[in-house]
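Re: [help] complex structure
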Amino acid sequence: DILMTQSPSSLSASVGDRVTITCRASQNISKYLNWYQQKPRKAPNLLIYTASSLQNGVPSRFSGSGSGTDFTLSITNLQPEDFATYYCQQSFTTPTWTFGRGTRVEIK
Amino acid sequence: EVQLVESGGGLVQPGGSLRLSCEASGFTFSSYSLNWVRQAPGKGLEWIAYISSRGGTTYYGDSVRGRFTISRDQAKSSLFLQMNSLRDEDTSVYYCARSRGMFSYFDYWGQGTLVTVSP
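Output below.
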């Protein structure tokens, strides 16, 4: 199985900050990496697919980059509604998938 | 509007069985593959089962293979998860999620249904 390692596991930031979350795959997954946002007691919401494509309706302050084994989710001008947990997911092995363990973004 | 609505969760004893349902609307059901993803309390997301758009192909995660069965009813636009031999560690919120094609992602999710396995 492909192991997805996210870092950090949590971070504290202020409104207006730029935040970067990284995800590393245990083997080459090309560009097949997706990012989800989850708020407490809610279902996950797709933000970014195939490493850098923004899902319809997602604000442009979210962006993704990377290929191979190393990927990044960036949030510029952090907004109050962005405080949540973020998960990466590899889809290289579709129709099986693995998720990272999540990064919790908290208010400083 | 795409909607996925899960039901069937509840409290069950270890060793027991439960059947979850996910009713879909707002899209051509037979054109999409579907999945079950679960989340234990305070933990991360775990993909556990996949079924192809026509229902002929299924895949399972190691933790549930041989105990859980995914199925779909095209006429009722519904997805199911039959869970047998339940264990304490199966306690989770269970989500259904839509996917499509190669290297696919989950673009719509249901709200989840809680399964608690406890004596």
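Chain B is about 0% helix and 50% strand.
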